[in-house]
Every structure is written in C-alpha cells, then in structure tokens.
Design brief:
By secondary structure, this protein is an alpha+beta fold. Helices cover about 35% and strands about 15% of the residues. It has two domains: about 5-115 and about 180-310, no CATH class; about 340-435, Aminopeptidase. Strand 9 and strand 10 (about 295) form a beta hairpin.
C-alpha cells in the first residue's frame, strides 16, 4: 500500500489536535469545552490512557496532563473518578488510568498475567490469602495496613533481585496484575485496593468471562511492569489492544518498544499492520524529511489529508502550555525528534551532576512548536513556585509578545499550585531573566 505523504507541520498539528492541545480555526483545544469531573473523564476517554507517576516535585504528571486539557482542573476531580468506579488502573503505556469501559479489552491480559504468575502466587500463598481476607473483611485496604510484621522476600515486586520487599506487598502486586484486586481510591501517591466486585460496575463485571484454564505464555514475566500478550494467534484481544494503542498514539512507528502495548516480535507487528492496512483500518504515513515510517488509524489518516489540503485552517494560535514529563504527547521521544525537532529527556532519574536542564524539566509548547523548557519545583512550606530554569531553544526570539504569553502561562501555573510567589532562579539565554 502506498503511504500518505504529509508535511511535518501537518503531522504535528493533527497529533496535537487529537490530543486536545491545538488552538486553530479547524480545531479548538479541549479545555474550551471540557470542565469538571465529567470533562476530566471525557479527556481521559479521548486520550485512551493517562500515565501515572508518584513523583511530586510539583503536581504529579497525570494531574499536569489534565491541567493542560481541562478548564479549571482540580486534582480531586481525577481522584473522585476512581471512587465512583469510572476509572481503573492497569498497564498500557506504563501504569495508567483507563476508562472503565476499556476493562473488557484488558481482561484477557489480566487473566494471562494471573496464569503466568501461578508459581510465584503459590510461593506467596499465605500472603495472598492474608491480602484477600483483609480486602473481604475491610472492603478497601492500603498496602501499609497489611502484613506489618510479615516476612520479607528477596527480588519480589518492583525490587531488584538482591533487595527484599514485604511479602504482602508482592502479593498485592500479583493480585492487581491478575485482576483480583483493583485500585479503588487514590489520595496523592497512596492507593487503596478492593476486590473487583466492589469497584467494577455490575454490568461490566458480569460481562467478563473467566475460561476454565489459561496456560502460561512463553517468556512469562509476573513483574508488575511486564504485561503479557495473550497468545492465541492474533486473537480478538490483540486486535482490540492494538487499536487502543494506535488511537492513543495517533501516529506510531514500530520501533516503539511499547508498540501495541504488548510483547510482539517485529514480524508479528509487521504482519498485524499489513492485515489491518488491507482492511483499511490503518494507513502508512510518510512525513517529509523523516526517515521513519509512521502508521495512523483511518480517521487520523483522513484528518491528515484534510489538514494537508487546507493548511491555513490549521495554522495554530501561539498559546503556551507546559507539558508534564509523562504527558501523552511525550510518550515516544523519537517521535518528538522527528516531528518537533526537539530532544527531550526526563532527568529526574539522572544523577544531579549529569543533568543538563533539571530534575523535572517540562517542555514549553507554543502553538505547534516546542520552544524550550522549564524546570519547576514547588516549595510548599513557603508557598513559592521555584523556576530553577526557564530555557528557550536556539533561534527562538524572546520578543515582547512571546514573553507576555510565557509570563501569563507561568502565573496560571503558579495559581494552579496554590503558590503565592514565583522565584525565577536561572534562564537560558541569561538575559531572559531580566525580560521576564
């Protein structure tokens, strides 16, 4: 099949529009229409998945991603969606919040994970029983409330093979991965767990099927970050998960190690894409001056063609937003380089001496371009937002209108965090500090 040829600006504008971040005549940002808990849920449904992370240098990544897309966003709106059974937490791009309506597509993955972890679950039988009994008795439990004096085991859960962790914590991870516990409530970084019948709406729960037996898949890994593939040829579940991935990414390339949110070989990826393309479900996309071949679901491909034919309608307004390190737009860093000519590394896990921009560096999006970075940190004791760096890319002119927009965006960011004061510590170029 011959690919659709589009320019870089067209590709990034459609990507931004599909993720609710573009302001243009042909596409308005989601926050012009989405607000409140209902708007928050709609944003997550449109994104397909929202990556979670406990780091709280400023507000957590999932809250920052929603702040960029939902008018007047408040973190409590997201937390309440878990309590109401509107979201569940599972592995997609990583550990993600997902709309509850997606659970049937992920259920076979959970069952496969349960089968893969059979031996480890047997080794933790006492702790598994303790956790399930606590969930039955209390309804909702926190990991720190269970197994205070229980055994500690080596190489379990998220720890390295030579580190020990609490057996009940490992049991919770395995039960969650296998769909026998669900996250029922979130407050900050802390999670409550409950049995699925307490969390999943009755109609969805009763529709889920549990086959009599599922064999472990080849190369099975029961660790919580290793989602398995349901191995029955290219099963309906593989198709559904692949489509969810493509719809969430809009433009994807097979070099992504998370491609399809499954462990597929290069041959399997190619085979699936060729079959889906033959059915007209996905189309190959060739972006000018980009070596990599991209793929898009059919509706996104149609939007690319429309935008390429009418570029004036897609010319973006120069609104400024700050993107969380795990924002959906940043999921695949090679795509950032291809479409935005922007190199980005989240430096929070890099030793301080080797950091270039800062621990919580957030890209600055202006219209359809990534023009620089900020490195914010919230001094909560003093109510101050510390801007440890505000950086503009080479060639980006700090003219008066741009600086005014940047200043307004920083003030709004500070208000979102409840900061009474902003402290600007360093800029690149250096003279930018006086201008701001």
């Amino acid at each position: 099949m011959q690919p659709i040829h589009v320019s870089k600006p067209t590709a990034r504008r459609i990507l931004l529009a599909h993720q609710g971040l573009l302001s243009a005549a042909a596409a308005q940002p989601w926050r012009t229409e989405l607000s409140g808990p209902t708007g928050t849920l709609t944003a997550i449904e449109r994104l397909g998945a929202l990556q979670l992370d406990p780091v709280s240098v400023v507000e957590r990544c999932h809250h920052l991603a929603l702040y960029a897309r939902v008018k007047g966003y408040k973190p409590a709106w997201f937390d309440n969606l878990f309590a109401k059974g509107a979201l569940f937490e599972y592995l997609a791009n990583a550990r993600c919040a997902l709309p509850m309506g997606a659970l049937p597509d992920f259920w076979p993955i959970m069952l496969q994970a349960r089968a893969n972890a059979a031996e480890r679950r047997e080794a933790l039988a006492e702790s598994v029983g303790e956790v399930l009994e606590a969930a039955r008795r209390q309804g909702h439990v926190r990991p720190r409330e269970i197994g205070h004096d229980g055994p500690r085991l080596m190489g379990m859960g998220y720890n390295a093979p030579d580190e020990e962790s609490k057996a009940t914590g490992s049991a919770i991870d395995l039960l969650w991965l296998g769909g026998q516990l669900f996250v029922s409530r979130r407050e900050g970084a802390e999670k409550w767990y409950a049995r699925p019948e307490r969390v999943v709406p009755k109609a969805i729960w009763e529709s889920l099927q549990e086959p009599e037996e599922i064999a472990p898949s080849a190369g099975a890994t029961p660790r919580p970050w290793g989602a398995p593939t349901v191995r029955r040829g290219f099963s309906p579940w593989t198709d559904m998960l692949m489509h969810r991935y493509l719809n969430a990414f809009t433009l994807a390339e097979t070099g992504d190690f998370r491609f399809g949110w499954q462990k597929l070989t290069a041959a399997e990826r190619k085979s699936w894409l060729e079959a889906a393309a033959a059915r007209g479900e996905v189309l190959p996309i060739q972006i000018d001056c980009v070596k990599r071949r991209y793929w898009a679901p059919a509706p996104a491909a149609e939007a690319l063609l429309a935008a390429e034919a009418a570029p004036a309608a897609w010319e973006p307004d120069p609104e400024i937003r700050f993107l969380a390190p795990l924002d959906n737009l940043l999921w695949h860093r090679p795509r950032l380089a291809d479409l935005f000519d922007f190199d980005y590394v989240w430096e929070v896990y890099i030793p301080a001496a080797r950091r270039r921009y800062g621990a919580f560096t957030m890209p600055i999006l202006e219209g359809d371009r990534l023009i620089g970075r900020i490195d914010p940190r919230m001094d909560r004791s003093q109510g101050r937002l510390l801007l440890q760096l505000v950086q503009l890319e080479p060639g980006i002119k700090p003219d008066r209108s741009r600086l005014a927009r940047l200043g307004r965006a920083l003030q709004a960011f500070a208000r979102f965090h409840g900061a009474r004061e902003i402290a600007l510590l360093r800029t690149e170029p250096e003279g930018l500090r006086l201008s701001l």
